[in-house]
Every structure is written in C-alpha cells, then in structure tokens.
Amino acid sequence: MRRPNTGSQVPENASRRTFLSLFPLTAAATAVPAVSAPAANAAGAGRGRPERGSDTYIAFSRRPGSFPLVARGRAATIVVGADDHPGVLRAVEDLRRDVERVTGVGPAVRRGDAPPRRSEIVIVGTIGRSPLVDRLVADGRLDVSGIAGKWETSLEQVVEDPFPGVRRAFVIAGSDQRGTIYGIYETTRQMGVSPWHFWDDVPPRRHDELHVLPGRHTQGTPAVKYRGFFINDENPALGTWAPEYFGPGKAPGFPNGFNKEFHAKVFETMLRLKANYLWPAVWGRAFAEDDPANHATAKEYGIVMGTSHEAPMMRGIEEWNRHAVPAGRDAEGNITEPGSDPYGGTGEWSFRRNREAIEAYWADGIRRMVEEDFEGVVTLGMRGNGDVSLPDGDGIDLMQSILDSQRRILAEVTGKSDITDIPQVQTLYKEVQRYWDKGLRPPEDVTVVFCDDNWGNMRKLPDQSLPKRAGGYGMYYHFDYVGVGRNYKWVDTVNLVSTWEQLHLTYTYGVDRLWVVNVGDLKAEEMPTQFFLDYAWDPERWPLERLHEWGRRYAEQSFGPEHAEEIAEILHTYGVLQARRKPELLNRRITLDPTKDLSKDEAAVVYDDQAGPYHLNHYGEMARVTREWRDLAKKAERVGRKLPRADQDAYYQLVLYQVKATANLYELREAEFTNILYAEQGRAATNRYADLTDARFADDQAMSDYYNNILADGKWKGFQTQPKIGYGDVERYGPDAPWQQPQTPNHVALPDEVFPAVKRIEVPDRAEMGVAVDGSDLWWPEADGKPVLPAFSPYQTRPDQYIDVFNRGSRPFDYRITAAEPWVRIDRARGRVEDEARATVRIDWHRAPKGVTRVPITVHGPDGAAVEVTAVVENPALSRHRLRGFVEAGGYVCMEAAHYSRAVNSAGIHWKRLPDIGRDEDGMEPYPVTAPSRTPGGHGPRLEYEMTLTTAGEVDVWVYLAPRNNVLPTEGLRYAVSIDDAEPRTVNVTTATGADDTYMNRRWARNTSDNVNRTSTRHRIDRPGVHTLKLWMVDPTVIVHRIVVDTGGLEPSYLGPPESMRVGRRR
C-alpha cells in the first residue's frame, strides 16, 4: 500500500492508482465527527482551533458512564426553554423526529424553564436565553468558558446531578442561536441521519439504542464566519421540479417561483451542513416576491440572507426586471422609446442614466431588511443586468459613486451614523476585478470577495505584503457554471483534490470572512458542497492526507460502514475521470492554428463542435477513457447490488446515476465519432455505429425517465431534464449554441438530441476492401502514398499497433496479411470480413536487427486487391544497461510530474505531491503556497528527471500544468526548464498562453475547457544518451501535471501520449 507522502520522498516508480490507496484506513465513524473540547480557555473565533479528542460522542450500545438517550424502548425527555431562539425551538422538533426515525422511539419535548423530575433528561439551550443552561453555569455544573461569546459554537456534555430529582442530563448548549442548532444537528448526524435525507431519500441508519459518551464535546468555532451557497442556473432541473413538488410561487404571474416550503427544506439542509448563508435563486426568480414569507422563514431558521454579485442592496435583480420596461435609445443616447419603472424612472438598469430610481429601489431593499428584521449581508457594487458587465464606458469613477451612494443609503435607512457593524461585501466577479486591479478600494469595513474563474481556479488573492482589512476577505467559488466556453450543470464534475488545493490556497492567504459556492440545483452537487462547507468550518481538520478519510465518512453517512470504502473509491475515481473534461464538452475539439501566434492572436484557438476532444486513432485515447468509464460503471452497479433495498433510491441519486449516465455518454460519443469517421471512409460498419449511438441515446433517455417518474415513487418528476448532448448545434439553437444549453430564444430548455448527427450510408452490393492503420484517420487505397504504422520501439509503452481491414460493400470477403520479415508478428493474419476486422502487429525484439528497419506488410483482399503497409522498426544501438530513466520511443518522452528522479528542496521550499489532481496522474506543487518567487538556477528548488534520448537535435519540452490563474500581485505565473547544465529557460504561463480570465477570451476558454495549461520551451540536444531535465520553481501556486519531450513524433491528442517506459536504477 502506498503511504501518504506530500514532500520530497515520492517513490520514483509511483504509478497511477486511485487516490484512496494512498492512505491507511482509519477507524470507522458514523458521520463526520465532533471533537472533544478543553474544559476552559477554548480557542476564540476565527483561526484558533480547539484541542482534538475523541471523534464521536454517540454510541449505539451502553458504554461505561454513557448517557441513555434511547435505551430499552424509552427515550429521554428533551427540555428547551420557551424563550429560546425560534430557530432552536424549531430544531428541537427535528431532534425529536430524528431520534424517532433512527430508533422508532419518539422522545417527549417540554418547553419551559423548570426541569421535569426524570432520571435522565436532555437539555437544549442557548447561553443567555436558556434559564436551565444559565442555572447550570451559575451552579458551577457546566463550564461554558470555552464557548461563551464565541461565534456559532456549541458544547455537548453529560452533566451529573444537574438539578434536584434529575440524576443526569445530556446538555446541548450553544454560544448563540446557530451554535445551539449546530449542536443539535451534529447529534442527529452522529445518530445516523444524513444531512441529505430529504434531497436524496437517504434512510436513517436504524439503531435500537442511542447513548452519549461521557466527556465534553464541541465542533469548535468555525474558521470561516459566513459559509454558504448560491442556488443558480436552476432551469430546467430544479426550476421544473420544485414548483411541481412544493407548489407554485406566490407572485402573480410567476408560478415558477420558489416558495417558503421549498426554502424551508433548503434552510434545514444548510443547518445540518453547518452553513449559515444563502444567495437565493435568480433565474427568473425573486426571493422576496415569490413568497412574502421567504425572509421570515429564513429568520425562523436562523439563516443569514445575501444576494448574488449582480444583485446589490438586498434586492434580487428580478425584482427590477419584473416591473421595469427599459427605455430605448439611439446611438447618441437619446431616448427613442420611453421606459418605466415603479420609481418614476426610465426603466433602465443604469446608475448613470436612471440614478434616482435605482437609489430608491436600493433603499427599499434595505428598508425591507430593517422592517422584517432578518439577518443579512449586504452586497455592494453593481453589474449589468443579466449577469453581464457594465458598459465599457463605466469605470472606476462610476463604481466609486455607486459605492458612496449605497453606503449613504445604508446609513439613512438604518438610522446609523456608523454602519461598520452591518456586514457588507463587494464581490470582484469577472470584470469587477479590473476596478480592484486599477486601485479601487471599498471602505475598510467592507469584505472584499475574491472569485474563481467559474471553473474552480481562483483569480486573485490578498497581497500578503499589505495590512489586513477590517472587513476581511471572502471567496466566491463554482461547482456549476453557465457561460463561456460552455455550461456545465448536469452532474457533479468536481475533483475534490483540486478543490482542496484551491480552498487550502485561499484560506492560507487569509480569506476567512465569507465563503460562498455556486451549487447550481444543489441536488447533484452534494459531495463537493458538503466538503466545501466542512473545510470552511475547520480547514486544519482536513489536510490533504485525510482527504480519503473524509470521502469514506461521506459515503458512510448515507450507506453505513460495510460498503463505505468501495463507494468512496467509486466517487473518488468518478471525480478524477469527470474533471478531465466536462461532459457537456465531449463534442468539442479545440485545436491551435499553427500559422497564428497564440500569445497574441485569439483566432489561434479553433473550435470544432462536430468533433470529439479525445482522439480515436492517436494513442488509443478514446477507447481508453471510454473503457475506464465503463469499468467504473460496472463497479458501481456491482456495489449497488450489495446494498439493501432501502438504500437503492439514495444510491441511485448519490452514486449510480451520475456514474452510469456519464459512462453511457462516453460510449455514445465513441460510437458517434466512430460512425462519422467510418462514413467518410465508406465502411460497411458505419450504420452499425449509428445504431449503437441511437441505442446509447435511448439508454440515456431511459435513465432520465426512471429518475423523473419511478425513482422514490416519482418524487423527482421533472428534475432530470438538463440537456447535455446537443450543445453546439447553431442551426437548431442559434448563435449561443456553442456555449449555451439547447434552449428556445426565450430561454426554455429543449429536449436533448445527438449532435453532431450520426450518418447513414447506402452500402453497395459488392465486396470491396479498405485498409486503415493505427494512428491515422485516412484509408487506403483511397489516400495518397502508402500507409505507415507508428514507429515500433522496444521501449514503447504500447507493444502493438493495429491494421483495420474493412468492407466497403455488403458481401463478405477473405483476407490475409503477410510480413516481409519473420520477426514481425501478426495476430489475426487471415480471416473473413463481414464489415471489419482488426489485426495487431508486434515485433520479436530478440530477433529484430539494430537500427531502423522498414518492413513491408501486405494486406490481400478480394479480386486481387492489395495494400502495402510499412512498419518502421526502431531498435536503438544502445546497450540496455546504459539506459537510464524514461526512454524515448515513438518520437517522444513522456514523464508524469510525480515520477521524478530527484526533488531538490531549498530555501524553505519543498515539493508536495497532490494525488490524482492531474488529468491522468498526480501533480507536484512547490510549498508553502505563500513562498516567495525564486530566480531559477544554482541550488534552487527543482524537480529532476533522468531520460534517455535515442536521437539528437532540437526538442520541444511541453509542460502540462493545472489551469491556474495568477493570484499574486505579479505579471504572471512562471516556471523554468533546463536540460543538463544549460541555462534555465523561463516561461510566463500567462503571457505564453494569452489567456485572460477577466475578458474570458478564447485562449482562457481553451485552457479551462481542456483543464490544462500547456506551454513549451525549445532546447538543443547535442548527442543521444542519458540527459537530465530540470523543472525549476519560479513562482508558487504552479502545479505540474506532466512533462512531454517532443523529439519529432508527438501526435495530436487530448491527454497527451502514454507515459514512457522507465528503466535503470530504482531508489
């Protein structure tokens, strides 16, 4: 078993395995646990953490000193003060229901200030609001010094002889309303109730008894103050299902709004996940109007309300759009058609042209917050209507005026001369970051929210050389996105290792005031959402080395301990495979025009929405990735068959559907693009692959139909309606089709279809032979010249190549294949072709001569037809014992970053392995992430790779990097490469790729879509033999996936070639 190794001691022969094999197993627990607290002087709010102790405090059988929450068919009475917070009183009812769901025994609940005379009772209360808790504190029976005055902190403790007539009490005490609520839900989670019980029909883990272990227990104080998510891009899935299930919205004319019943389920789930902050849905929805009781419901539950980056001053943008008709203007800005809005303005969402109306609109939002007395975080700033940028002419001066106006409104409406105690944020989303970069700064008490690039790569982080802001910093992150280069919103596509790396980076740079993540429909993003919130609560609890443990516990909370390890492995592998490329992008190939300069010309990036990104004939790429998905789906089905019937609905929603449906989509795409290629070649098998494509599409629709109509007795009707296959069809969907989901002009999603369309051909009534070879899309005898197989080498990773013999007619024929040399071996050298046959070619290296030999191979077919194929056999005249490291073959050397020969750490900088962060392997990153930039060379930190080159001359060294942006106050992200003792050549990734995450140009879209930054340097090799490639650290936060040395034979592919063979001494 591979052990965790995040420094420089990664074994050089490490091969790709699932991330879960890296870490030793730990003892199972019922849920992601609480921890024991010190008796006093607990860590304060923010970054201080309490001491660690036992993982869990709920047991399912009697233990020494344990408290019987439920035992022998009886449940302890729950007592809560009548004047405690409304959110606490409501959550106590959930505690009662959850105990009954787990044990079948429902405890009594008493509201009051006097304890009942019972042997054992449960006391739930907030310090300062619960007379019973306060009495225990005053009597010295409960020490709350470790939590009192803290933010959202709870204490769970068994107290002996708390009151006369009461022998013992289990106390859940909170520092504030949410602290108490979190203590309640931590208890129910440890009992066996999943936070996702409603959203995924997860049954509780049934137990006859529940016991509380002795001791003091706490989950600590959250590291991030405000933690939550943004329900967004919710059409068609959530937007179809929710009004059907919960009933229509209350706003006249807008029945698809989300009402308080819907939000009550969202709020409950948030609290079970220890979230406290929500950006409500905005796609045609207005939180305050869709149900006037929505804000009151948030207050009842104890949820902090916010609004998204495009919706300032506690007002959703749809509250404007529903009631305003914008004026029309000509090119000079003159009104040509009058507009209107409820404030007597022009109806335009423009601070410059409609200031008075906009200010009155904002004032009403703040007034509502004051009058309804709900807890909120006020968004400042302004963006264009519809989640777009403000007009180009609107710049820093206007944004400063907007901020000044909003701050004035806050003071006037609230009546406060000092508004610094009102939580406020400005989110630097997309173009707004330009204002920050140019020097605009909101007041010091405002939280500045940095954003990712919508694809999980942070764009900017605080400059570590500057003083801290009073308002601190926040983060806005994405698990779902609508926009360039293409929407991704169907299923979870998150690689948790990559997410961990970005969250760790962000927290390390001091971003800890507010974290919010776009979760799309929420459902389908359960795993990354829970991880995001768990990490925000306590980053130190979940270092990289414990990520596997987190995944196992996540699986266990829904399916129990017996199969948690297997399920966690499935979900981990799923995330790794899915993150290679979003499933919506499986019919887009992105190539580069070699005649254009990528760093300067956006047109250098070429989109082809009628081709697949994975190559059918280069390195067997498409077949390999499809096989990996098929194998994973089989494993998921196999594990699913082991689960009890009660778990089947939850397993389908949390695991099986997303795995099977994605695997099916890969099979569909492989068949589809094989069909298109075969149609061009006139193969008789063309129509068979069209039929196979149609069958996989039917399977996709059948899975959706099951989800919508049968799953959980039809509970999820309409939810699985998100298109994912038909992207790119401009003729059907219009000019936005390359990035937008298939939809009508008025933004209604359309049923899916296969695009590009499959092709069917008329197959002539004859026998006609065609020949195709490995590595080529051409066919013979149609193509010019002779077919040539990829070069053979004793050091190649794939030992064989193939020759396809296919029929272009409907009548079968016999074929035979002969080689001019006996040491060229051919499997299936003769046979009968109905539509196609594949022969494999191998070399007997014990008999093959040294040097380069070209061997003719003749394919004989009907009516005397023959095609000569050339096999190029390269057997270097190098003795094997002189080879070292990775050996050139096929015109390249490919090395995974973590398979280095030597890691050089210096100046306090070391190399950390990030398991499975790459598209095919582990990644390497210099640590700490706050390390200063370095000049490459000398004794600086570097990774060294031994390699044996069989040729000399110029080579291109391609470095595959994570598609990270430059979060530092520098001009770009840099690394350097040298070979042997040559001077390092520095690459500025930002300028070399030309990617701009602010303007989201095509070069940026290419990198994010492909999930890689791929840059190169050119070097000269004077002689064949052993050489050392050195990759130098220049800037922190650069993550290296793999290195490919192109000696002249590198073929186009999505993932790159297979890793080269490695020989020589092993450590």
Automatic annotation (TrEMBL):
Is this entry keyworded Hydrolase?
yes
Q: Which InterPro entries match?
A: GH115, GH115_C, GH115_sf, Hex-like_dom2, TAT_signal
Listed GO MF terms:
hydrolase activity
Question: What UniProt keywords apply to this chain's record, in alphabetical order?
Answer: Hydrolase
> Gene3D superfamilies attached here?
1.20.58.2150, 2.60.120.1620, Chitobiase/beta-hexosaminidase domain 2-like (3.30.379.10), Glycosyl hydrolase family 115 (3.20.20.520)
Keyword Hydrolase included in the entry's annotation? yes
Biological processes, Gene Ontology terms: carbohydrate metabolic process
Q: Which residues form the Gylcosyl hydrolase 115 C-terminal domain?
A: 885-1059
Protein name (record): Glycosyl hydrolase
Annotated organism of origin: Streptomyces taklimakanensis
